[in-house]
């Protein structure tokens, strides 16, 4: 199975490492080649252009930051390189954007499947990402052997756009849960209540979410370095949900507040840190 990856950011590189460990034949392209150069020693073909990566592959995974980045990279690919290739879009984009990419690739002679992922870098490196596939069922069946390497239980959601919608719904939960937990934790700390006692109560309640414990130490220690998912990406995804919500005439008042807090976090210079840095915007360090 010849696999190509377009996009060597945090998730793209982590997934590449996993596929190489699984003995997949891998070609990878990233606009900043220096970020993926070390994959060469693990057996990856480092490509100087997106066209080269596509030409060397049977299945091409798109792991780029947004729809504009996808369009820029696809526009750089030689037309003949698309023919009979299957493209799997794994980033977070809007349903209509995904449908547009499908139309573009179909007209170029390629097949398309959207399959956004949920999980972080450890899950990417261990093949335990949650996969939400949508598109033509034939394309899903063709991709399934690869998807099972990436995640243990791929899910087929339906027509193109539905996987993208589920991913936006999940990322909205990430931002919402992080903000509400941050606010509660800030109150506990301000009143100098024992945090572990508070957490025991939370864990015993129906309100508990595992992400609370995953981000607790980062928030308490204000250590937001080495992110698995940067603040700027969550801010982008939150804004994307707001745009889709407006099109659907949903009341997104609460999420607009979350978006403003994410913008505040970025204005504090924390755009490339872990998204738990939103705690710093909610509760300024008074030490």
From TrEMBL:
SUPFAM superfamilies: 6-phosphogluconate dehydrogenase C-terminal domain-like, NAD(P)-binding Rossmann-fold domains. InterPro entries: 6-PGluconate_DH-like_C_sf (IPR008927), 6PGD_dom2 (IPR013328), 6PGDH_NADP-bd (IPR006115), HIBADH-like_NADP-bd (IPR029154), HIBADH-related (IPR015815), HIBADH-related_NP60_sf (IPR051265), NAD(P)-bd_dom_sf (IPR036291). It is an enzyme of class 1 (oxidoreductase). Residues 161-281 form the 3-hydroxyisobutyrate dehydrogenase-like NAD-binding domain. The keyword Oxidoreductase applies. Pfam families: NAD_binding_11, NAD_binding_2. Residues 2-158 form the 6-phosphogluconate dehydrogenase NADP-binding domain. Its EC number is 1.1.1.60. Transmembrane segments: none annotated. The keyword Oxidoreductase applies. It comes from the Bacteria. The active site is at 167. GO terms for molecular function: 2-hydroxy-3-oxopropionate reductase activity; NAD binding; NADP binding. Keywords: NAD, Oxidoreductase. This is 2-hydroxy-3-oxopropionate reductase. It comes from Methylophaga nitratireducenticrescens.
